[in-house]
Design brief:
Layout (H helix, E strand, L loop, with lengths): L16 H10 L12 H10 L4 H17 L11 H6 L2 E3 L9 E6 L10 H17 L7 E6 L10 H14 L4 E7 L3 H10 L5 H4 L2 E3 L2 H11 L22 H13 L1
Parallel strand pairs: 2-3, 3-4, 4-5
Antiparallel strand pairs: 1-2
Helix pairs in contact: 1-2, 2-3, 5-6
Amino acid sequence: MTVAQPFTTSPVPDDAKPFIAAARAMGADLGPNLSTLTDLEIAKFWVAESRNDAKALARIQATLAWRLEYDFDALLADEFADVKRTGKLYVLPQPSRSGCSILVWRSRLHMPDPPRLPRLIRFFVKTVWGRWKEGKGSDRIVVIVSRDGVEMKHRDLTMAREAASVFNAHFPEVLNELYVYPTNWVATTIWACVRPFLDPVTASKVNFISADEMQKRLADLTTPDNTPVSMGGTWEGEPVGLDPEALLKDEEVVLKS
């Protein structure tokens, strides 16, 4: 096996340090939980707002308020064994060649489930932000959306919009690249509905490509032993996953009993 590269954490830009100091000096005026933000997180808001102090401070204030409402402090202790068992989202064991965490979303293992959508979004947040805070991943991610075997019943515009909205508002400068494959008119239709929830810089990182092109991109992104067999690599650790339709039927039985 190839020697694993370390997950990396982005450096704090030198030119962001005066803004960070100014934000810290505001203290509770920004939010009573300001101390929970790292210098890097504060800097990312500033960079995302094109180094505009006022806009960055407004976003930080909104995010701190959201974290209080979201019970963010309890996130790392949350257990998501049931969601992990579905296999719809998993993380490759090694980072990309540039040190980013690589997340794989398998659309065929998901179906709309509105009552459990908030929990799914919370799982997304823990998978991205929580792994970084625990030293198990990078502060930046590459996302691969596999649409192999997808049917119309798997389409979930509400989930896509909600996830895009949460990450765009509260986790700037996290997405490094996102690949959707194989592409067709359904994928581009969903993208047309989701794109308004993303800033232009983030939207520019989303790529719709063929399965063959995805294999070429993976060769650039990582090594064969960190690439699932289903994507042309040799890594055999991909979760088996559960049939989402059967899961929903089981849940309906439980709710009616």
